[in-house]
Amino acid sequence: MPIFRFLIIGLAVWLAIALIRRLYLKPRAGAPRPLEHYVETVACRHCRVHVPREQALVQGKHFYCCPQHRDTRRVTKDRQNRNRKA
Asked: Which of 6, 13, 71, 79 is 20 to 30 Å from 86 by CA-CA measure?
């Protein structure tokens, strides 16, 4: 019978310590933190890489990650227009 009492008391102490830790200590490192600074991103029309909206190059309604991709799209459209006219 003394072993049974010892186990019950040990379990009660363990539960008390666990509750105190949960209430008073910092959240775990794995817990999600709220976003401190949100940056809106947009996808490049050519390669689909996401870049911050402030850094993206805009042409009409479309966004591009670099001048080369923006210019590639222009060349492709010019070629398509020439083929339609011919």
From this structure: 71
The string of DSSP codes covering 1-69 is -HHHHHHHHHHHHHHHHHHHHHHHSPPPTTSPPPPSS---EEE-TTT--EEETTTSEEETTEEESSHHH
In a domain, 16, yes or no: no
For residue 32, being part of any structural domain is answered with no
What residue numbers bound the domain in which 47 lies?
A: 41-86
The pTM for the full model equals 0.48
Place of tokens 């910092």: 26
| Residue 74 parent element (H or E) | helix 67-85
Per-residue pLDDT reduced to its tens digit, 52-84: 999 999 999 999 999 999 888 666 665 555 556
